[in-house]
Amino acid sequence: MAGSDAHRDRDIDWGAIEASPEFQELVTRRRSFVLPATIFFLTWYMAFIVLAAYAEGFMSERVHEGLTVGYCLALTQFLMVLVLGVMYLRRSAKVYDPLAKKAVERYTETGTR
């Protein structure tokens, strides 16, 4: 069974799929979300690190009882990962998956193998 899968994969023209307009649109659309989201998150994270290093007074201010600004900002890191992950999953279901399906359908329709 594994041999038949390997044989089938050798028959796929990956270069033709990569060059197809549908696949190129998929890559462009994904990149237009992933790159800004990554830059935003890394900026958010590095700002936290810089504040922790250079704004000790601000970060140690108490918000409520033992909860400090630093802890609140640290917790937003987890929240940010969750929000960006959910945003990506929703966009994937609505935009990326249909584009990937179109690319596969075009490949199977043209019979390029």
Provide a descriptive summary of the structure in words.
The chain is mainly alpha-helical and 113 residues long. It has one domain. 84% of the residues lie in helices and 4% in strands. Strand 1 and strand 2 form a beta hairpin. Helix 3 packs antiparallel against helix 5. The mean pLDDT is 86.
What is the gist of this entry?
Helices cover 84% and strands 4% of the residues.
- Beginning-to-end CA distance, first to last residue: 20 Å
Radius of gyration from CA coordinates: 22 Å
What is the helix fraction of residues, given as a range? over 70%
Report the principal-axis shape.
elongated
Strand order of the largest sheet: 1-2
State the low-pLDDT regions, or none: none
Tally of distinct domains: 1
**SSE arrangement, N to C:** HHHHEEH
| Record field, number of beta strands | 2
Helix and strand composition category: mainly alpha
Number of helices: 5
Largest sheet: 2 strands, antiparallel
Average pLDDT, to the nearest integer? 86
Give the strand content.
under 5%
Keyword list:
mainly alpha; 5 helices; 84% helix
Q: How are the SSEs placed, and which strands pair?
A:
Elements: H1 2-10, H2 14-19, H3 21-54, H4 56-59, E1 62-64, E2 67-68, H5 69-110
Antiparallel strand pairs: 1-2
Helix pairs in contact: 3-5
